[in-house]
UniProtKB/TrEMBL annotation, chains A, B:
Top-rank lineage group of the source organism: Bacteria
Gene3D superfamilies: 3.40.50.2300, lambda repressor-like DNA-binding domains (1.10.260.40)
Protein name (Swiss-Prot/TrEMBL): LacI family transcriptional regulator
UniProt keyword list: DNA-binding, Transcription, Transcription regulation
Domain HTH lacI-type: 16-70
Protein's organism: Streptomyces nigrescens
Entry annotated with the keyword Transcription regulation: yes
InterPro entries: HTH_LacI, LacI/GalR-like_sensor, Lambda_DNA-bd_dom_sf, Peripla_BP_I
Biased composition annotated in UniProt, kind: Low complexity: 175-197
One matching Pfam family: LacI
Length: 386, 386
DNA sequence: TTGTAAGCGTTATCAA
DNA sequence: TTGATAACGCTTACAA
């Protein structure tokens, strides 16, 4: 054993190449390549021998060489365009990433993760990745209502899957827009009966999404069933596609039940605890405050509950609270929060699978994730009389 | 504009190569390479022309080709060995990653992030990355008290930096050296099994860490100053290096103040809200329950506060609570939690810088991050009389 | 069933 | 100051 300091510094052991294997197995390099890649053209005997030698030497294909010779880069990219402060608050991303990798790593595909400040930087990064041939495809998260990324990626020919729903706004009753011809094959997404035919979520890229409309309907079923008639939705960033979809769904659900749109509506925030609390304060100060509030993430929900506590407003006695997205937070507060539970790692797995399908030349399509369910806990109950 | 469906599928535009540039600028490929890499050997005139053409064509070096021709892979790796469920709860990692990338992306270096189940898989992954030449270096997080990774990485010759502190127990208080932002050169120091205290933090790899001992001292200063004499530390995973350091520091600080070790001690958990709550319950059930509890993360602290609330134990009236690591959680609960605030993105930046330094042949050393400060909020106060 | 050789896009080593 | 030319490790026609 050499001295530790030296060990860290000594020349890395030479990595074995197929040439080494060829020499040692007494065959040509191409035979080795064929044998190792499960291609026909080598005898079972040779194949076995080559395999054994490769194993002995601990050979792994040099990813650069493989990528260079026209093969794939063996990596996918994921860009997070969020200001650094808002990163930590949500458990969503790491769970998503963990699901994505469960699928990718099974195929020996790496994931490049990059955190950037804004959408322009994100687009620039896609261009660079494409030019550098660094990734075989990307997963686009946080789709916006007006999103430049799908067009860019389609133009570059960089395979991509939109994660988290159609970038285009959800079906709007005002816009009968079923006319667009496209190669889209909605896998499961069948627009609900009361609405006109939906625009294919995104004509340019395959999409994996959750049905926010149905989820919102579930939440409203729960609250309406309890007797709530004044329900406010404290949403997240206004530019995000799923925010738009949720807001739209709330309207639809309110109309369906004949609820007053002034008493059932949405307000947008930046997802932070600060804005969540602020919005809650404003609502509670109103002449006729809501009896139930639906928050678009867990942090805001907890912040809202805290505001209620400050003012001595009992939850759920005088105010019911629902969190869209569950996490440890919802379970540690007092009372524990009723939450919309999603299988986020599962969603990540689905997205990764779809990306692989696109790479394999699969059709452009829209896939829906598992419908989330509402976990009723202690923060929702019947509204106070009146 | 072609039909959308087609756009997504059409052959990617060909990426420009230096050959294209050479042809267009009327020079040789090697001249282009020299010009683009700021190497001497081309006239100012040629250099400028080449640059301009490259710009026009939107050329970016093909990362695979560059890596293959002996250069670096242009990527660093970060492996997270944690069960999927415990991933989301902490805001720590995404913030760390965001700091790391601030430094890496300035140098056009990508970050490979991989989430795995256990340490064995992590080690296997390092081997693969090394064999594939996929990364130029790695950042090792969650160092353990008995950690196989540094030895493996040193043996592979894969540059690495340990993030989050020495894997060995921290330097004993007898040695006042640990204070300064020091850079030790342990290359010559042979670790001796008989004197663990004198062991340099890590003889094999450069290390970036936070001074948990001083941080714990600050927390104890605060609590002791308020009058607390029964203080329990609900720590995280027992195998982690920083857990060991914190436990050790608590002992040291208790001894220094002549406190009873039975009344000032640590218990370990898995960081989950469930175990945090459970440990809290057990403590509060004791004959002489603690008057203050220090939690090793924010989630457990909130869970603990919730347990106190359940039992009608006023915080901070009858129980003071401190969270090690701040987050939105600590600010949205009621009362807001006193927390140890660290600059996590800054820590990530430091780690990335150190890794770059190691790659540039810098010395093996130990760097200390900024000392965290205690943000006193509403969850700590004087203990009840008696 | 095998081996030879060309090519992927760079960088690096030579002569010119 | 230049321009051929040979690596780098792998895949893949094309020949044998």
């Amino acid at each position: 054993m050499t001295a530790p300091g030296e060990a860290a510094r000594r020349k890395p052991a030479r990595r074995p190449t197929i040439k080494d294997i060829a020499r040692r197995a007494g065959v040509s390099e191409s035979a080795v390549s064929f044998a190792l890649n499960d291609r026909p053209g080598v005898s079972q005997d040779t194949r076995a021998r080559v395999r054994r030698v490769a194993e002995e030497l601990g050979w792994q294909a040099n990813s650069a060489a493989r990528a260079l010779s026209g093969e794939r880069a063996g990596a996918m990219g994921l860009v997070l365009a969020r200001p650094a402060q808002t990163l930590g608050v949500e458990s969503f991303f790491l769970q998503l990433v963990s699901g994505i990798q469960e699928v990718l790593s099974a195929r020996q595909i790496a994931l490049l993760l990059q955190v950037v400040e804004d959408l322009d930087t994100e687009c620039a990064l896609y261009r660079r990745w494409w030019a550098e041939r660094r990734v075989d495809g990307v997963l686009v998260v946080d789709p916006r209502t007006d999103d430049p990324r799908p067009e860019l990626l389609a133009a570059l020919g960089l395979p991509a899957v939109v994660v988290g729903g159609p970038a285009a706004p959800g079906p709007d009753p005002a816009e009968p827009s079923a006319g667009e011809p496209s190669a889209t094959e909605p896998a499961t997404a069948e627009p609900s009966a009361t609405e006109p035919a939906a625009t294919p979520p995104h004509p340019l890229l395959s999409t994996v999404w959750a049905d926010d409309a149905k989820a919102m309907a579930r939440i409203l079923d729960h609250l309406y069933g309890l007797g709530h008639r004044r329900i406010v939705h404290i949403a997240g960033l206004p530019g995000l596609a799923h925010t738009a979809r949720r807001i739209q769904s709330l309207r639809t659900e309110a109309d369906r039940r004949g609820l007053d749109r002034r008493q059932v509506h949405s307000v947008t925030t930046d997802y932070s605890d600060a804005e969540g609390a602020e919005a809650t304060r404003r609502l509670l100060d109103a002449a006729r405050p809501p009896t139930a509030i639906v928050y678009d993430n867990d942090v805001m929900a907890v912040a809202g509950a805290s505001v209620a506590a400050e003012r001595g407003i009992p939850v759920p006695g005088a105010l019911s609270i629902v969190a869209w997205d569950d996490s440890a937070l919802c379970r540690v507060t007092h009372p524990r929060l009723t939450a919309l539970v999603r299988d986020t790692p599962g969603f990540g797995r689905l997205a990764a699978q779809e990306l692989l399908a696109v790479l394999d030349g699969g059709p452009l399509r829209t896939v829906q994730g598992e419908l989330p369910h509402l976990e009723a806990r202690e923060s929702t109950a019947m509204p106070p009389p009146g």
